[in-house]
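Structure tokens please, single chain.
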Amino acid sequence: MAYENIKNKVTYIYALGDPDTGEIRYVGASTNPERRIVTHYACGSLEKKRYFDNLKKAEKRPVLHIVEKCHTSIRWEREGYWIQHYIKNGNRLLNDRNRY
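Here you go.
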């Protein structure tokens, strides 16, 4: 039974958009993106922390966009694809640039 759960595990590739401009500022992967957003306020680079702190002070939240649903086994490949996609389109991502 446990093997069946792993075999069918789904991951969502998500993008977080700025609530004022709509610009995509972060791309991630999670089995539960709604819950994952909360952790962005507490971890990451100084630039990322500042951005999320400013949203919180303004009582705003990033806009969640699900860009792809994929099998967990390819989540890193697909997350990397979407990060590169948004960078090529001029988005100023807050993702750790050393990872991609």
